[in-house]
Design goal:
The chain has 317 residues and is α+β, with helices and mostly antiparallel strands. The chain is built from nine helices and twelve strands.
Amino acid sequence: MSDALWRPTAPLDNLRCRASLLADIRRFFSEREVLEVEVPVLSRRATSDPHIESISAECSGDKAYLATSPEFGLKRLIAGGFGDCYYLGKAFRNGEAGGRHNPEFTMLEWYRHGWDDHRLMIEVGELLSRLLKITRVCSYSYRALFLQMLGLDPHRATFAELKACVSEKLELSFEPAGRDECLDLLMSHYIEPRMSSGITLLYDFPASQAALARVEKDEQGVPVARRFEAYVGGMELANGYWELTDAAEQLRRFEADQRYRQENDKAVRPFEDRLVEALIAGMPDCAGVALGVDRLVMLACKAERIEQVIAFPIDRA
């Protein structure tokens, strides 16, 4: 074993920058009277999201899982009568490692009682502007950005039209399997690299990408997901929802995720049925957002890779 592997990968200046940024985040929420809370990072439930994998553990002889997000715990607090609150701490995702990913990472997630996605989107812009000293903030609907950059309506385009656009704009060694894969490829490989250096807020995603957000009709009568994403210079930083509060619909989505996992040879694990119970009990209207802190530090430090802003990435952990 090389003796260099004991060393941290992040320089001291970047770790100082990180500490300052964490303090600024806490100051921002303290000024707004949003309460910092803790939720478990070790749970007997796992994510059902077919695109995210939990890391398994063992607790008292039983199977347990490291939290991929504090979302379920925070929503259970909201349903239990807590008001505005946030979590700033660790989350874990299996198989995610690279220039912008580490299996263990730091997440900021917060919820605003009585807010919708558009009001929370404004606060995300205010937080990022303050932390990164950026004044340029632009917001677009998902449709408007696709029309501007690609000349097609992502909500109405057929699969054939989307595949043709992918073939024209991107060089791929495979054919996309469906509409959502086409949209994701166009977003990540064509649109994101062409975003401005400022803050870009994108809202009204396709209804098929709702995850845990509400679905409502937009001004053109098309069902859209009431969720948004925040980018800085094409780097995705945050993903927010006007939260789903319908228990029956939440259960239907969890069960659909489980079926997809089973049909596609993915691990099927216990899903968060306690969130369904919390929704039945009555979770109030709220909006929530998750933000990747390591990527935020990368931008603040002008770092190119995540290991430059965390002391010990997975290969040295």
